[in-house]
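Revision sheet: structure tokens.
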Amino acid sequence: MTALAEDLGRIALDGAAPRHALAVAWVSDLADVETVWRALESDPAALMTPYQRFDWVAAYAQAGIDANAKAQILVLKDEAGRPRLLIPLAVGRLGPLRIARMIGDRHANFHMPLFASREAAAMRPEDLIEALVRAGRRAGIDAFRFTNQPRFWDGVPNPLGHRGLPAPSDAYGLLLGPDAEATLKRVFSGDARKKVRAKERKLIEALGPVRHRVAATIGEAEEIQAAFYAQKAARFAALGVADAYAEPAVRRFAAAATAPDAGGHGPAIEVHALETESGRVLATFGGAVDRDRFCGMWTSFDTDPELGRFSPGEILLHRLIGDQAARGRRALDLGVGEASYKAKTCDETIELVESVVPVSAAGHLVAVAAGVASRLKHRVKRSPRLFAAAQRFRRLRRA
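Predicted:
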């Protein structure tokens, strides 16, 4: 018996499904679903974001960031017993209620099921909701809370994004071409490229030659991450806000996700640096990756005021885009949230939605409350006046 067949056997169906409906299977041990998961994600027909790679999810789940939630993997199968989609969930309590969210929470820019194919993703949204409700009842879940769901992914509608409310912010990305130089010319205007080249020349005059490094070993990833943590700490201190990257669990996740695993798979998160020949890191960039896409997760730059006029972060972004195109990836995104560098770089808005699938009577109350909160956040984020007021309120609270 093959490893895939053995793993499929361990994924026991949780009760009989109605005729022609998707069969529901819950798996609580990542090891029991790893072979099936990797087989799905390695299939060119699969539809997924890099945040649903096994290595990304495993690194997050095992780091202890969501200490009060338990990883539960939901696998939905067709009548022939073939997995059609897989949803990595973290089930935890909200007061007396049990709520299921997708693993990754705010550290993932996109939350979406891993579909076996575009055909699987083309299911009726009502059929997926019906399967989720059945699964939730059997597991004692009151509601599923889905955030940052792309309404479309790779041109295919996401059934979980069908009836969702607009998220407070969208994400921004761009398509890459097979020719790196042609891609850079398309993404950046001639004037923009000229300015970056001028800044890079002045940077070299001041500090000597600089290079773009992609971490290829655990040691190189650790070096770049150490610089990232130091640069972020300085930046947050200057802003007077707490450093979210100082949390030990977050650093455990980053260490695991940026390291190639023993099976020869590339890292779940790829880290880049712009540095001098002496090894001084001027800027960093990290992104979740799969064979086709780079999803920006974090970036930083040296806060030395003397370096600011050279814009090392902008230089690294240009190098990163050229590198990804040259290596054959088809798309790159810069994550969720508005920023001037995203607006100047990206030519695609990735529309995101939020939704709650209630299971119990109490879950319906969660759906109503979440809908009110989502609409309010969306209104604040899309209104410059309200957003400025919210920022002032936050500063006052910190003070």
